[in-house]
């Protein structure tokens, strides 16, 4: 009876954490589409200030991913840290309507960023601990599916609310949407507090020093390969710029992105299940090949309909790599170090996005708009070669 209860708790955790990811993604992506306009037109912030705020948020998220991952390993608990992370994000979002200037909005966005970074690594470790090894791909695919469905619905709900609140002035309209998004974020707190069961891990020590022992063996090899791939994986803002350069209308771009998220969401679970059957590295390798083909397509695109097709294929790439890569990390790292491993993995991907995007911008300006996409395709093919050479996955 005890074993059955434990199994039910583990299965329940996978489901509940999936819905936590859904409402968290929904809340975040209700805010993101209108935040730049709120910054500039409502608060009157300069572009430099906008860049400072959002750049600082990205940095804080990356740092907190490492810190929270280490702490969750050291104390051997995940749920409480995940709860705190989502609570910080919910507070930052629900108070956002009160922003009246740069200082306050900066502070609240940092609170949100601290929360986002805090919950990521321990949540991934909790998913891994709650899943059987043979079902790891399905578990992370389920998380990505619901998270991305939230990202798909969030902008659509915001668009509907913009129409519903059309009679209000912009200042009130945006603040009402922020308030609703903040209240949605509190659903994650209720779900975690009431329905997620802690899966106690081994407490490593009371010292909170960075344990670099995780950088060894198959994790180190995979980490190196991911860095090479990520160097060519610049911000998706360049995809939008490319779409505009071949004649896609600004009003059409949100619809294309929604379509991308839909493909990503619907194929995440099948990709995860496939990785459980044929191996995670095999699916990741397939995803990187799809990425290379997609980026070559963006380099060669001439007509708007090309962009529609390429974004759909791009959604397939995301579905075969995001959740599957995390399940591979869980597969090759012991439970006692998974929080640290996920923190380092997630943070490095975020931090390397800056040089990757700088390289892409330089190539766009100095060579041609197609050059960043050729570079991304080359990095992807290199990663495919190395991940095959290194034989990373455990048998």
Fold and architecture overview:
With 395 residues, this protein is an all-alpha fold. It folds into 2 domains: 1-197, MFS general substrate transporter like domains (Growth Hormone, Chain: A); 211-394, Growth Hormone, Chain: A (Up-down Bundle). The chain is 80% helix and 0% strand. It contains 14 helices and no strands. It has helices at residues 2-31, 35-42, 47-75, 79-94, 102-129, 136-164, 170-195, 217-231, 237-245, 253-278, 280-300, 304-332, 338-366, 371-390. The longest helix is centred in the N-terminal third of the chain and has 30 residues, at 2-31. The two termini are 32 Å apart.
Short overview:
By secondary structure, the protein is mainly alpha-helical. 80% of the residues lie in helices and 0% in strands. The two termini are 32 Å apart.
* Share of residues in strands: under 5%
SS content category: mainly alpha
Total of domains: 2
Quaternary status: single chain
Give the full name of the CATH homologous superfamily of the largest domain: MFS general substrate transporter like domains
Number of strands: 0
Gyration radius, to the nearest Å? 21 Å
Uncertain runs with pLDDT below 50, 5 residues or more?
A: none
Identify the CATH class of the largest domain.
Mainly Alpha
């Amino acid at each position: 009876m005890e074993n059955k209860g434990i199994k039910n708790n583990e299965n329940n955790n996978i489901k509940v954490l999936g819905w936590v990811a859904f409402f968290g993604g929904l809340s975040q992506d209700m805010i993101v589409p209108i935040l730049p306009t709120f910054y500039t037109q409502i608060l009157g912030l300069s572009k430099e200030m906008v860049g400072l705020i959002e750049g600082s948020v990205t940095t804080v998220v990356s740092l907190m991913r490492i810190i929270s991952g280490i702490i969750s390993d050291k104390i051997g608990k995940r749920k409480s840290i995940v709860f705190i992370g989502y609570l910080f994000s919910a507070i930052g979002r629900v108070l956002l309507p009160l922003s009246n200037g740069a200082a306050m909005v900066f502070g609240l966005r940092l609170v949100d960023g601290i929360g986002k970074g805090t919950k990521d690594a321990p949540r991934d470790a909790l998913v891994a601990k709650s899943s059987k090894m043979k079902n790891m791909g399905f578990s992370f695919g389920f998380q990505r599916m619901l998270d991305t469905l939230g990202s798909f619905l969030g902008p659509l709900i915001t668009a509907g609310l913009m129409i519903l609140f059309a009679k209000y002035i912009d200042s009130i309209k945006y603040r009402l949407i922020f308030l609703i998004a903040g209240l949605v974020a509190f659903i994650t707190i209720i779900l975690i507090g009431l329905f997620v069961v802690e899966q106690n891990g081994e407490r490593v020590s009371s010292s909170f020093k960075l344990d670099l022992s995780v950088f060894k063996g198959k994790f180190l090899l995979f980490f190196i390969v991911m860095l090479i791939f990520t160097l060519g994986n610049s911000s998706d803002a360049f995809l939008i710029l490319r779409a505009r350069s071949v004649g896609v209308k600004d009003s059409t771009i949100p619809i294309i992105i929604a379509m991308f998220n839909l493909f990503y969401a619907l194929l995440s679970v099948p990709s995860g299940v496939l990785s459980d059957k044929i191996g995670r590295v095999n699916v990741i390798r397939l995803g990187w090949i799809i990425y290379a083909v997609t980026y070559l397509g963006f380099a060669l695109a001439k007509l708007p309909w090309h962009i529609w097709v390429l974004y759909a294929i791009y959604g397939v790439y995301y579905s075969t790599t995001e959740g599957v890569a995390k399940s591979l990390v869980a597969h090759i790292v012991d439970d006692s170090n998974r929080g640290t491993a996920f923190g380092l993995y997630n943070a490095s991907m975020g931090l390397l996005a800056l040089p990757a995007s700088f390289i892409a911008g330089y190539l766009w300006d100095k060579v041609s708009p197609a050059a960043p996409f050729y570079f991304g395709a080359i990095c992807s093919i290199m990663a495919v070669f190395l991940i095959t050479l290194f034989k990373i996955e455990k048998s």
